[in-house]
Design brief:
heterodimer; A: alpha+beta; FAD/NAD(P)-binding domain; 6 domains; seven-stranded mixed β-sheet; six-stranded antiparallel beta barrel; elongated; B: mainly beta; Folate-binding fold; two-stranded antiparallel ribbon; 6 strands; globular
Chain lengths: ~950, ~80
């Protein structure tokens, strides 16, 4: 079946002893290990791989590498795979993209008939009006014709993408001769080196060269791979360079992850991507059978594929001449070689489905099925542009060259100039040494700047000047467009005619032209198109190329999959010391910030009732806990809480609320005084980190004279709330030498003691659930023992664990608000009902001027208890409270539940102050649109507003 | 992601730290008018150039420190040395 496979070539990559089977549009094919998808198909005689984006013309191989605009295919459910570089794998299911209904018979070809409508600016001009048609019609039809592959929303077969951080001294982007030489000399100078090559093997253009090139490649590659200072990443691409030499690498060759994003902080970046051959613009230049010289050389020498049988070659350089030799050695009849250096030209290619004849500049028509062009190079300077460079056009060499680079970015290889392999590797070596020396000086400086690191072992290397002998710039004819028009951008279907039309319409700056016509905006991001686009613009404006400038090349250098960007998430998951017990005992979990914790153990309503009737225990470890020590703790508390703290006695706890500097309620909790200079502060579960950082900010920045030491102990202490009328009896069975009676241990007090044999437990008596309750903070290593002891010693009392949902129900019955649920980002202290708590006559407290202003206002929303008049209706949280007539919004339900104690629905709500008086009837708009009435209550608490139950 | 020099931990990825913003002096809450207070809350210079800002070494030593950073080039210098 491999009708175009040649006899063995000396540098071929394929392993002919292997046989890989795959399908292309449902038909079975085979290839060898080392084949790309495209080379295996080309060897089997496939000529058409895709259809053009707009006109749906047939497309064949153009460049036969990563940048080939015609070789995007679907592999399984992975879209936009580059068949020019992706290696064949046994069992691949490959299909064509951008065809409908099929590659052979594509309805989109009809677009050719209306081609004049699809010229530059077609979308902008056509789909503007009428606007309503955009959603109803235009979008749907256009989507059918949109290029690109398909992703199923359930796609998951690609496994876990990964991320990695790396800190090489030197990163070399490009594994050709110059890049390999640079890596070697940098490693020899003592630098750690990362060498990144986008192809699956090192070598660059040496790979398809003659025996001399292959010998150099073998030597360099062996030296690189055996050097322990060089990490080689093939099949990987440097996609971006950012501030302070942050370099992004997408690694595809990883053994486990399909793709891995490497975030590299690099001392010196060496940019050595080589050169990209550019297409020639003429009529019919997108016909299958029109190829670049590099494509022919790769097909013949790397994959032993015969690219055609009768060839015409247009050559402006040695690559074109070498292609002629390769073709002849492959048994292709070379009908004519047109020397572009001598003014010879091609004006057109014709054929149905594939080239069948070529029109030359001197009027001949040659019969041929292969037209090879070698008209020059694009320097892919993207990474240099990202470092701030604006490359300059050089007329003599007919391409762009770097202009000015920061010290930590260096260029070598073809991007920097021309030379023999020996000259390129020599320049690479010098560049590697210079880069290493600069990077090692940086590494030395970093060590000395880091007080906690060991001092450097030696002095920094001496600074050396950049004395590299620049590579020369070989003369090259400026050949961009023939006398006819053809495609400039193959992936976006933009022709030279479109560009000239755009310039005529006034889009005659290269940046405007790019956006208007989408030239250079395809997957190749201008690698093939930028120079030709600038040339056509220069021609249409009759100015020099150098005066056109270039578009700014931004990241990414090559398209990046979303999976690689999303990667692995490094967010930790926090579990209390009791979480294993919860999961072994039927807990249904919920995620609360970073914490996994039990929502319930089966029936939240039963759990809540058991707390009201007997006793329940709940794991409240996520509650933020900060250990505060020092003589100035009371001053700190006075500053960060709205209430007063100077007179809190040892053994007492107090509720405190915090506001930010803008007066908005930010956190709350209780803080207890354990000893003269020792306090324990609790915060909300979600606010623990922010409160800690805020305390540190004040202590370090504004009050450095205060002596307070803050230690977070959230995970170190496991917190167990024992709640219910029988909690005193239960806990009494476990404590030693501690009197729990109401007189000895009153409400809002704290004691230290031994619980079930565990010393250093902190117990405070508070009542979030509204019941008699004790919060026991146990050193986490012994928490499971205490938890199990509570359960084992209370079965006669009806003890049972309860989860977060039951606690939410209980606290709502009691009317306790939750910061961030019953308040929001605009809720100032009066809204939360903190009027009695806030002390405005303190010397300083956070947000003091805003607090003063807030209490003078009468228009702030008010948090109220609310009960729907129909007791079975539980409005969803966030339902709006509206005017009885019309749609004016007057508030919203912030919390709602069915109360197991009252057997009716209960709510907290923020309402307009006009609705705040007890007894006011309000209207709630339910999610389904119905409106129900509800009555404002006197208290936030629906159960036991007097607080009798918690004070027994 | 830029590199920010923590006085304790040395140069670190900015993702290890938190930018706490431009340094703005806090007015005396006893005497500040509401207008002055809200200028402190909400108004920043935001120049394209040198700015003095506070960073917090969130994943390291937890120190708050002040640097000068050029917002146009991300060049960083120690306010003590400028």
């Amino acid at each position: 079946m491999s009708i175009h496979r040649l006899p063995i070539r000396s540098g071929e990559l394929i392993d002919r002893s292997t046989n890989l089977s795959f399908t292309w549009n449902g038909r079975t094919f085979s290839g060898h290990e080392g084949d790309t998808i495209a080379s295996a198909l080309a060897a089997a005689g496939v000529e058409v791989f895709s259809r053009g984006m707009k006109y749906h013309r047939r497309r064949g191989i153009l460049t036969a590498n990563h940048w080939d605009p015609n070789l995007a295919v679907q592999v399984g459910d992975e879209p936009n795979v580059r068949a020019g570089s992706r290696r064949l794998v046994d069992g691949m299911e490959v299909t064509a993209q951008n065809v409908w209904p099929s590659l052979r018979w594509d309805l989109g070809t009809a677009n050719r008939l209306v081609g004049r409508f699809l010229s530059a600016g077609f979308y902008y001009k056509t789909f503007m009006r009428p606007q309503f048609l955009w959603h109803n019609l235009y979008q749907r039809v256009l989507r059918k014709f949109a290029p690109g592959g398909r992703v199923h929303w359930k796609t998951g077969v690609h496994g876990e993408y990964d991320k990695r951080y790396a800190h090489p001294d030197v990163l070399v982007a490009g594994g050709g001769p110059a890049g390999m030489a640079a890596a070697l000399s940098a490693a020899e100078a003592g630098a750690s080196v990362m060498l990144v090559e986008q192809e699956p093997e090192l070598g660059g253009h040496l790979r398809w060269g003659g025996p001399g090139d292959l010998a150099v490649l073998a030597d360099l590659s062996r030296a690189v791979h055996s050097n322990p200072g060089i990490e080689v990443l093939c099949d990987s691409i440097v996609t971006g360079r950012y501030d302070h030499n942050w370099v992004a690498v997408v690694q595809r060759s990883h053994p486990v992850a399909p793709e891995r994003l490497i975030k590299a902080r690099v001392g010196s970046l060496i940019v050595a991507p080589g050169l990209v051959e550019r297409p020639y613009v003429f009529a019919g230049n997108d016909l299958p059978g029109v190829m670049l010289a590099g494509a022919v050389r790769r097909l013949v020498n790397l994959w032993a594929v015969k690219p055609g049988s009768r060839a015409v070659v247009l050559s402006a350089n040695s690559e074109g001449d070498a292609a002629v030799a390769d073709l002849e050695s492959a048994g292709v009849e070379v009908v004519a070689v047109l020397d572009a250096r001598a003014g010879e030209d091609v004006v057109g290619a014709r054929g149905r489905g594939r080239v069948s004849s070529v029109q030359t500049g001197d009027g001949r028509t040659l019969r041929a099925d292969l037209l090879v062009t070698a008209t020059g190079w694009t320097a892919p300077t993207s990474l240099l542009n990202m470092a701030g460079d604006r490359p300059l056009y050089d007329r003599t060499a007919a391409r762009y060259f770097p202009q000015s680079l920061p010290d930590n970015v260096l260029a070598t290889g073809g991007i920097a100039g021309d030379g023999s392999t020996t000259e390129l590797t020599a320049h690479g070596r010098e560049t590697g040494s210079l880069a290493a020396q600069r990077a090692l000086r940086l590494r030395h400086a970093r060590r000395t700047q880091t007080p906690r690191s060991l001092p450097p072992e030696s002095d920094p290397p001496d600074e050396i000047a950049d004395n590299r002998i620049p590579l020369r710039r070989s003369p090259h004819p400026e050949r961009y467009r023939s006398t006819t028009h053809g495609l400039v951008d193959f992936s976006e279907d933009v022709s030279s005619k479109d560009l000239i039309q755009a310039a005529g319409e006034g889009f005659d700056s290269i940046e405007l032209m790019k956006r208007y016509t989408t030239v250079t905006m395809g997957p190749g991001q201008g690698k093939l198109e930028t120079v030709n686009a600038a040339a056509v613009l220069a021609e249409s404006r009759a100015v020099e190329m150098a005066d056109i400038g270039t578009t700014v090349w931004r990241p990414p250098f090559s398209p990046v999959s979303l999976g690689a960007l999303a990667g692995r998430i490094f967010e930790p998951v926090r579990r209390s010391a009791l979480q294993g017990w919860h999961e072994a005992n039927g807990a249904t979990n919920l995620l609360a910030g970073q914490w996994v914790r039990p929502d319930h153990y089966g029936s939240p309503m039963t759990e809540a009732s058991n707390v009201r009737e007997n006793v329940g225990i709940i794991d409240v470890t996520p509650l933020g806990k900060l250990d505060l020590r020092g003589p100035d703790v009371a001053n700190l508390l006075d500053l960060v809480y709205v209430n007063r703290w100077q007179k809190l006695e040892v053994g007492r706890v107090r509720y405190g609320a915090m506001v930010a500097e803008d007066g908005v309620v930010s956190d709350d909790g209780v803080t207890g005084r354990l000893a003269d200079n020792h306090y324990l502060m609790t915060t909300t579960s979600s606010g623990a980190g922010a409160v800690w950082e805020m305390l540190e900010d004040w202590l370090q920045t504004y009050r450095p004279d205060w002596e307070v030491h803050v230690t977070p102990v959230t995970g170190g202490l496991t917190s167990i709330n024992v709640a219910g009328p029988r909690s005193r009896e239960l806990l009494g069975r476990l404590v030693e030498d501690l009197d729990l009676s109401a007189d000895a241990f009153p409400y809002f007090s704290v004691r230290k003691g031994i619980v079930s044999g565990v010393e250093d437990c902190i117990i405070w008596r508070i009542g979030f659930t509204g019941e008699l309750s004790y919060e026991v903070h146990v050193p986490s290593g012994h928490a499971l023992h205490v938890w199990e002891s509570l359960l084992a010693n209370g079965s006669d009392l009806g003890v049972a664990p309860f989860g977060v949902e039951a606690q939410r129900v209980l606290r709502l019955e009691k009317g306790h608000y939750i910061v961030g649920q019953d308040t929001d980002g605009l809720s100032k202290a009066p809204t939360a009902g903190l009027g009695g708590l806030v002390k405005l006559d303190k010397a300083d407290t956070i947000g003091l001027p805003e607090l003063r202003a807030a209490f003078e206002r009468t228009d702030l929303p008010v948090l109220v208890g609310l009960q729907p008049d129909e007791p079975t209706v539980v409005p969803d949280e966030a339902c709006q409270i509206v005017a009885a007539e019309g749609n004016e919004i007057l508030g919203r339900v912030t919390s709602s539940r069915m109360s197991p104690t009252l057997k009716r629905s209960i709510c907290l709500a923020q309402v307009d102050p006009s609705l705040a008086p007890a007894g006011t009837s309000v209207t709630i708009q339910l999610v389904d649109g119905r409106r129900v009435s509800a009555t404002v209550q006197e208290h936030h608490a629906h159960v036991d507003p007097e607080g009798v139950r918690q004070r027994v | 992601m830029i590199v920010v020099p923590c006085p304790n931990c040395g140069p670190r990825n900015s993702s290890d730290l938190r930018n706490a913003g431009e340094v703005v002096p806090r007015p005396d809450p006893q005497t500040a008018s509401l207008h002055e207070w809200r200028s402190y809350l909400y108004l920043r210079e935001n120049p394209a150039g040198w700015v003095t800002e506070t960073w917090y070494c969130r994943s390291g030593c937890r120190r708050y420190f002040t640097i000068e950073r050029n917002t146009a080039t991300n060049e960083i210098r120690d306010p003590g040395n400028s």
